[in-house]
Amino acid sequence: MLQEVVTTDLEQVPGFDVFTNMDAETRNGTAIMVRNGIDVENIKTLTDGRGIAIKIAETQVVNIYAPSGTENKRTRSQFFNEDMCGLLPHNNSNVVLGGDFNCVSAPEEQVPVLNLCMDLQELLRKLKLDDSWRVLYPDTTEFTYYHNHGRSRLDRIYVTRELAASVSHVEVCPVIFSYHCAYKCKLQLAKRKIP
Q1: Which helix (H) or strand (E) is 118 found in, with range?
Q2: What is the DSSP string of 11-58?
């Protein structure tokens, strides 16, 4: 899952199918890369490029880039309460929700100033999503964004409780192409049910 994507040249990455969603005006967007040979269906996008969702077998994979900044709290609230609804399944499917949330859902995720988002907390509660990092490391925090005044854990992947047991590896790693660290999560997606 990639956020703040500014090019569609990702489609040339060998071994992967890339699904992008770019805002026509700002030319920013989101993308999901999937290994060649994995069946993808039901692609959904937000018109502003801030979200894309695909279905793989029995799992809805959603990638978001939430509005940032203190001045955008109201816009971010609308994003979590309204805009994202079109990307989410209408039943109790398995969900992987990842991306740059540009806010935190727990106090330990930001130092020193807290940008706690109650709307995100409520969304996670409604969807019964668990933080993939906390599944393996309930008492440790790794930050994904560092700045002059502190550090935050803005980039996360949440999974439905049914998928939480399959999370086998998570890792935060610096990358040279972004001011955010990459967040890696290895899990086993639910297999397609055969009628």
Answers
A1: helix 118-127
A2: GG-TTEEEEEEE-TTT--EEEEEEETT---EEEEE-TTSSEEEEEETT
Tell which residue, 176, 108, 115, 175, has the closest CA to residue 142: 108
116 DSSP 8-state letter? B
Report whether 5 contacts 11 (CB < 8 A): no
pTM passes above 0.85: yes
- The H or E element spanning position 74 is helix 73-81
Q: What are the phi and psi torsion angles at 89 (to 5°)?
A: -70, 155
Name the residue type at position 109. E
How high is the pLDDT of residue 186? 87
The residues spanned by each domain of the chain are 2-186
The three-state secondary structure class of 109 is helix
Q: What kind of architecture, by CATH, is found in domain 2-186?
A: 4-Layer Sandwich (3.60)
103: DSSP letter: S
> Measured between alpha carbons, how far is 40 from 58 in angstroms, rounded to an integer?
11
Mean pLDDT calculated for residue range 125-151 = 87
Classify residue 193 as left (phi > 0), alpha (psi -120 to 50) or beta.
beta
What percent of the chain stands above pLDDT 70? 91
Q: Could you tell me which residues come within 8 angstroms of residue 187 by beta carbon, excluding any fewer than 6 positions away?
A: 96, 132, 159, 163, 166, 167, 168
Tell me the chain's radius of gyration from C-alpha atoms.
16
Cα torsion 181, 93, 91, 21: sign? positive
Closest by CA to 128, choosing from 170, 99, 93, 103, is 93
